[in-house]
Design goal:
Helices cover about 45% and strands about 25% of the residues. By secondary structure, the chain is an alpha+beta fold. It folds into two domains: about 1-85, K homology (KH) domain (GMP Synthetase, Chain A, domain 3, 2-Layer Sandwich); about 90-185, Ribosomal protein S3, C-terminal domain (Ribosomal protein S3 C-terminal domain, 2-Layer Sandwich), CATH 3.30.1140.32. The strands form two sheets. Strands 5-4-7-6 form a four-stranded antiparallel beta sheet, covered by helices on one side. A three-stranded mixed beta sheet has the order 1-2-3. A hairpin with a 2-residue loop joins strand 1 and strand 2 (about 40-45).
């Protein structure tokens, strides 16, 4: 019974996240998180343009709250908007930007769009990026194009936990174009990463350690001397 409750709760959370993502297109929506609080359900929406989600005098956010409460039977949903600082390091926002540019300028300029986005992401400090565009682009035959730069892990635990991935679809006259974006942010710690310290820093550390050792040594000697005197006093026979 407990397992079923957890599964049902997770399914409900996924449906809410999917509904929010579907209704908040072209507003820089990244992802959604849900938290259970004593007052009700707290829904945190991460986006690059929070003003468009809130709307004039908070009309959009009020309407979204009412819809979520009615559709998913939530007791007291509390929606919070969190702004994303580095939009060029978020795979969902980058994929949405590519979709917007393709739908605006068409499939003829897909190479320029891919190289432009790739340059912006790398300039933002990303370790690596890969953009895959597939579909009837630029001709009537379906093809797959890949834009990549930097270093990107494709296998292992780092490829799962350290790489941000997103999928999107652009609807053009020629058909639906699939877009895959993979970004390795600068915060990813690689297992083979080595930090080389300066010689000055090493010398300073050695001096500090030596000073600490010199301070501890006399205290230890004094303690050992006191213990020795105490032991000798106990072993000395009492004179009558």
């Amino acid at each position: 019974m407990i397992e079923r409750k957890f599964v049902a709760q997770r399914i409900k959370e996924f449906e809410i996240q999917e509904y929010i993502a579907e209704n908040l297109k072209k507003v820089g929506h990244s992802h959604t998180k849900m938290q259970k609080t004593p007052l009700g359900e707290k829904i945190v929406i991460y986006a690059s343009r929070p003003g468009l989600i809130v709307g004039r005098k908070g009309q959009n956010i009020k309407q979204l709250t009412k819809t979520l409460k009615k559709t998913f039977s939530l007791e007291n949903p509390q929606i919070e908007i969190s702004e994303i600082e580095s939009i060029n390091l978020d795979a969902n926002i980058v994929a949405e930007t590519i979709v917007d540019l393709l739908e605006r300028f068409g499939s003829e300029k897909f190479k320029a769009i891919g190289h432009k986005i790739m340059g912006e992401v790398m300039n933002a400090g990303a370790l690596g990026i890969e953009i895959a565009i597939s579909g009837k682009i630029p001709s009537s035959r379906a093809k797959s194009w890949r834009f990549y730069s930097g270093y990107l892990k494709k296998c292992g635990d780092i490829a799962i936990t350290g790489v941000d991935r997103a999928n999107a679809q652009a609807k053009l006259k020629s058909g639906v174009i699939g877009i895959k974006v993979s970004i390795m942010p600068p915060t990813t710690k690689l297992p083979d990463h080595i930090e080389i310290m300066d010689r000055k820093e090493v010398k300073v550390q050695e001096i500090v350690e030596k000073e600490k050792g010199a301070e501890k040594a006399p205290r230890k000697e004094k303690k050992e001397g006191k213990d020795k005197e105490k032991k000798e006093a106990e072993e000395e026979p009492v004179k009558e």
